[in-house]
Write a structure and sequence with these properties.
4-stranded antiparallel β-sheet; binds 2-acetamido-2-deoxy-beta-D-glucopyranose; alpha+beta
Length: 120
């Protein structure tokens, strides 16, 4: 490989990493139909903290609560345009009656998410 190509590739990789960590993205698990209802919606808003990654777990239903509905779709909407966070499905989700989402901020940045859970 020519040095120039290698440098271009490294440059691209650095740029891709930068773009991947700076763009906000929404995440969706499962599909919903018009028969599904909104079971739960919550806003996750956290202030940034210097040098830190903020992480929040969203659990549905709560500790002592029970949910009689089958979950069909879980969405995590990131309201930020850049320096967005990262949402991960930890437990449950579509096909279950419970779900735990783990949301992490970008280092040095806060969170502004809305989580919605649909089911029937
Ligand atoms: C995420 O979803 C919200 C609400 O639907 C929308 O306004 C926003 O443009 C979406 N962001 C991205 C990066 O697709
Ligand atoms: C959950 O239920 C237990 C036992 O009934 C009780 O001690 C506890 O305070 C409840 N927790 C919440 C968050 O309601
Ligand atoms: C979070 O996003 C909502 C919807 O875009 C916006 O109205 C609100 O001001 C934002 N909050 C913060 C703290 O940025
Ligand atoms: C629950 O939802 C999942 C995902 O939409 C679906 O595959 C499954 O058949 C549903 N189960 C029941 C009992 O309705
Ligand atoms: C979710 O529900 C399943 C059964 O439907 C249960 O086995 C599991 O312990 C529950 N998980 C949480 C985190 O509540």
């Amino acid at each position: 490989m020519k040095a120039r190509t290698a440098i271009a590739l490294i440059g691209f990789a650095v740029l891709a990493t930068f773009v991947a960590t700076s763009m906000a993205t929404n995440s969706t698990w499962g599909q919903r139909t018009r028969y599904d209802r909104l079971l739960y919606r919550t806003d996750v808003v956290k202030k940034s903290s210097l040098w830190r990654v903020i992480s929040v777990d969203v659990e549905y239903p709560g500790k002592n609560a029970s949910n009689p509905f089958n979950i069909t779709q879980v969405t995590a909407i990131d309201h930020k345009r850049k320096d967005g966070g990262f949402a991960q499905l930890r437990k449950g989700g579509p096909g279950y009656r419970n779900v735990t989402l783990h949301i992490k901020s970008a280092r040095n940045h806060g969170l502004n998410y809305t989580v919605e859970i649909f089911g029937n």
